[in-house]
Amino acid sequence: MPLALLALAIGAFGIGTTEFVIMGLLPEVAAAYGVTIPTAGLLVTGYALGVVLGAPLMTVLGTRISRKRMLMLLMVLFVAGNVLSALAPTFGVMLAGRVVASLAHGAFFGIGAVVAASLVAPRKKAGAIALMFTGLTVANVVGVPLGTLIGQSAGWRATFLLVAGLGVLGLVGIAALVPEQPRDGGIRLRHELAALRDVQVLLAMAMTVLGFGGVFAAITYITPMMTRTAGFADSSVTWLLMLLGLGMVAGNLIGGRFADRRLMPLLYGTLGALTVVLALFTLTAHHKAAAAVTIALIGALGFATVPPLQKRVLDQAAAAPTLASALNIGAFNLGNALAAWLGGLVIAAGYGYTAPNWVGAALAGSALVLALVSGALERRRTPSPSSSPPSSPDRAVPRPAAGVRAKGEVPARTR
């Protein structure tokens, strides 16, 4: 494994921690600012929307410098946003800090995915992307539970200062380990947008929005769901988030392993299973053991879709990989924002803390439908290997007798 992948994973670890730790601290932040939990959920929505806007903006701005230097500048922006969040005197300033930090997110993963794919052989691209995203998933096993524990004991502001420190560590790792990368100065906006008009690219991004949105509909409000519905103590949230993170790590590695082999069947299976599990979560959330198992399954199934979705976008937009990759990271977070907002709406409407699970199941089911449509269109485009055009419209080609090879024909065993 190239050491550069380790450096990218370190940066992903810091970003993953700040993205997901807010879910474990939502009640504490809401109480500190005197707002409701659905209102505090805007910290998730705001971060996600910042990623959506920042992904293409920062990627295009970064075409003037090398990819390595751009990754370093993005980590500086990430650190600044988390320091602002930690010191925010009002909810509005806290939200602004989250948005500032989020501007680095999409471009980091988008550029990082291109860098990761360039470091390995073509047949190992999805695996390299998955290794970078392992930092994001490991953050849910170590960073998020630890940050939640620190926030509950020493205050949530201490958590965001810790996350800023992780950003500094990621910056040092990138500076030391990532090799110099060429700048994307050859990008032409018209050329990029033309590549992005491909229907398969758009379908892949739509699958990303809906599929990962289904995951976030459930996990955004996992703390109040587990403490007020399942009956877990507040102190149990730490290990529940660790369980979610372990599922994410396993799912990400599985997705990276099989996406290079059977990408579309993998998406059909994971999206279909995710739809069922999210629907069942409305029932299992009322029982502690069943809820814990379901949380791990949601993490695994959700993150098993990440490498194949990212690879499909890179494959289908080969002429515009950097911008397309960053836009797909934005698509993940557009799904996060949509799901967090819809989940807050159904809770505020009085349907209870398990209602977002129905929202998640509907979103994941919609992503499955789009995956089936995408696969059907791809099969229609691809000619059958057994079919071959006739040499003349009005005369068939005579076939040689059995055992006789036509002139120029290659023996079957050498094909």
Automatic annotation (TrEMBL):
The chain crosses the membrane at residues 42-61, 73-96, 102-121, 128-150, 156-178, 199-224, 236-254, 266-283, 289-309, 330-352, 358-377. Residues 4-382 form the Major facilitator superfamily (MFS) profile domain. It holds the Pfam family MFS_1. The keyword Repeat does not apply. PROSITE patterns: MFS. Signal peptide: none annotated. It is found in: Cell membrane. It comes from the Bacteria. This is MFS transporter. It comes from Streptomyces paludis.
